[in-house]
Amino acid sequence: MCFLLSSVYSLDGIVVFGILFICTCAYLKKVPRLNSWLLSEKKGVWGVFYKAAVIGTRLHHAVAITCLTMALYLVSLK
């Protein structure tokens, strides 16, 4: 358990969290009921979800390549 908590504060843990957050928000943008509820605000704290969804949909090729790169890094080097 201590190993899992220490990986949150490393750079690769932060990158993995960011990638998963962007991918999740982009997926939630495709679900109509959740899109209108969660991603309707474009400013403020809830605007972070909207902005992550926009990044995920517009840069989906770059996000996918980053996901694969981080997966290979975590499997092979970590």
Automatic annotation (TrEMBL):
Family matches, as Pfam families: DUF1242 (PF06842)
Transmembrane feature ranges: 6-28, 48-75
Signal peptide: none
Location relative to the cell: Golgi apparatus membrane
Stated family: Belongs to the KISH family.
The protein's name: Protein kish
InterPro entries (alphabetical): Kish-B, Ksh1
Top-level taxon of origin: Eukaryota
GO cellular component: Golgi membrane
Presence of the UniProt keyword Transmembrane helix in the record: yes
Role of this protein: Involved in the early part of the secretory pathway.
Lipid bilayer topology: Single-pass type I membrane protein
